[in-house]
From TrEMBL:
Protein name: UDENN FLCN/SMCR8-type domain-containing protein
InterPro entries: FLCN/SMCR8_DENN, Folliculin, Folliculin/SMCR8_longin
Domain UDENN FLCN/SMCR8-type: 37-393
Molecular function per GO: GTPase activator activity
Amino acid sequence: MEVVIAMGHFCDTHGPCVILCTHVLDEIPKEKPLSKISSCAACESIELDTVFVCEDENKQYITSRTSLDSNLTRLLKDAILRSLSIEMVLQDGKNSGTMYFGDNNRGHIIAHVFSIKDSFARGFKRKYCMIVLGKHQISLLSHYDFVEKHLKRISEDLQQKAEKFNSTDRSSTTSVDKILRSLPELVGERNIFAQLHMWFVFLLRAEIFKNIPHDIPSCPVNCSLIEKLRNIKLEMPNSVYDTISYCILTGIRVEENNLDILKYFQQLLPKGFQLPTVGMVCRISRPKEKWNVNFDGSLPLILPCLHVSIKEALENTNITNSALQYHIMSLIMHWFSISCVLNWTSTHSEVLLRTLEVRKCDTPLLDYWIPQSSECVEICKTDYFKPRIIVDK
């Protein structure tokens, strides 16, 4: 199940219940829908042993009274219950409204709640909802406007039909059979569920629900040990920290003597960066509990912007450790993105560098980062929406 569309009704007798369900399957199932369902004239739809089916070259689009999957039936019932009686969306003076709710366990739901005129009902209206239930939150919410637009169009069509059909005043009859009326009776359309089936199939066939990305790459930055680096920074003289951090960020070899702190500085680099094995060396030592570095080179008067930003964040006591992790990750990602852009371009014009807010002091860092950003270019070329082909060995 990628996406399922269902319709629900708030029955005066049975409460919130599912009256229609449309899903996509590879083939028509052999088992029948669940038969033990309490219903009345108001919440009745198509017969339990009846299904509507549309098919294309790959899929079967099946609409039934209830889902053919018992687990899915439970999820749909829960979603209908929340849409019609727990989550609030209708405002005073409005006949419809759309909302999102859900989680990874019960699914992610876009629900459109609306009312239909019924001259025999309490309050002269009956409450319905249409829900789109999916497994992927990002994919569903990315197309919230599309879903809302079409669900609203369907509900408005039903409301117009009901308004036209129920234009007469409320009758004085008290017959239960007359008061409890199904959706076809409310809108004056015998085949309204067949029309809903076609509407739902249209939505399910939309390419937006087929483009579920696969193998999305992980974040290229990991600063899970940043609290350790902050503590080390507090112990070190500024000159020692500046030297180590500058060498790490600009690709100068750094060696340590049984200190096991290098990994805390290396998290300031994007994952996968190759560490230098030749060239100048910065050696870290701690004789008599005093931090020291031995570096033949010299630091520039103005350090790279990323170096300065990270140092300021580490020293800022108003930033908690949990917030610090993601703040520094965002700083690194910003400069990784700049290096990717410069990797794509053959010439680095002054206009481009000014647009990216790159200064002369950032040149040593970018000279090290740009050649290592080619993997970022390949990631951007990859089609993560392309279906995977699994070959049995």
